[in-house]
Design brief:
- By secondary structure, this protein is mainly beta.
- The protein is built from 4 helices and 16 strands.
- Strands 4-3-9-10-16-15 form a 6-stranded mixed β-sheet, with no helix packed on it. A 5-stranded mixed beta barrel has the order 5-6-12-11-8. Strands 1-2 form a two-stranded antiparallel ribbon.
- β11 and β12 form a beta hairpin.
- The radius of gyration is 17 Å and the shape is globular.
- It starts with 18 loop residues before the first strand and ends with a strand.
- The relative contact order is 0.22.
- About 13% of the residues have low confidence.
Length: 231
């Protein structure tokens, strides 16, 4: 598989040791928490043709895809996914359904999978080697301040990026990990974040069940509102 163009190496000069939010410094040892997985809102604003150009893979000819600035997990949308077969860009339904599931299985409970336990939980362990990446250009999280909820658009300059996932037949789940840095500040209730892969080595390592180093440095709030890579 050719490495997607949007996963080409990023200059080290764009990486920073500390995190910033509205010019307020947040040290790297900011609190970590172990709470339930939670990533239920993403955006994919790129067209089918733009996704194909950036990913260097094709959708199947009969597939149609309509971009949306806000896909909600509980609607179980079909999103662009590259599986470890690395053949096409597939449209899979959000909410993994294990092969053993009956008609009453509730895939609302499998929108996310904690990376710490994907090899243990019954819903995910049979799909442990069924690795995939979900192609998005952002995701949404909310910070809670008293009775208020503040929505954040999070990504890497509104470019395509990969979220780690598992798949079973035509369904998938997004894998999450502990929130760090600015993400821990934003997602201050569940303290989780999706596992983001922003370079070719980590993409291939994930698809081949090898160790990865997720991208976590969403440390700059752009003028267009997206919390993004420090510039």
């Amino acid at each position: 598989m050719k490495i997607p163009s949007f996963l080409e190496p990023i200059s080290d000069s764009l990486r920073v040791r500390n995190y910033y939010f509205n010019d307020v410094k947040i040290e790297n040892d900011y609190l970590y928490s172990k709470v339930d997985a939670m990533c239920f809102h993403v955006k994919v604003t790129k067209t089918k043709e733009q996704i194909e150009k950036k990913s260097r893979l094709k959708f199947k000819p009969e597939v149609t895809f309509t971009p949306n600035p806000h896909f909600k997990g509980f609607d179980h949308p079909k999103l662009p996914v590259i599986t470890n077969q690395q053949d096409f860009i597939h449209l899979l339904e959000w909410g993994l359904v294990p092969h053993w599931a009956g008609n009453d299985f509730n895939s609302n409970n499998t929108l996310n999978a904690r990376i710490e336990t994907i090899d243990e939980k019954p819903s995910f362990r049979d799909a442990y080697t069924n690795r995939c990446v979900i192609l998005v250009d952002g995701f949404y999280e909310w910070r809670h301040e008293g009775k208020d909820k503040i929505k954040y658009d999070i990504g890497i300059n509104n470019n395509l990026m990969c979220l780690a996932g598992l798949y079973s037949d035509d369904t998938f789940t997004i894998v999450t990990t502990e929130a760090v840095g600015i993400m821990d500040y934003i997602h201050n209730t569940k303290h989780r974040m999706p596992v983001v892969l922003n370079d070719g080595e980590n993409l291939m390592n994930w698809l081949n069940c090898k160790p990865i180093v997720p991208f976590t440095d969403f440390s700059y709030q752009r003028e267009d509102g997206q919390v993004s890579l420090f510039e």
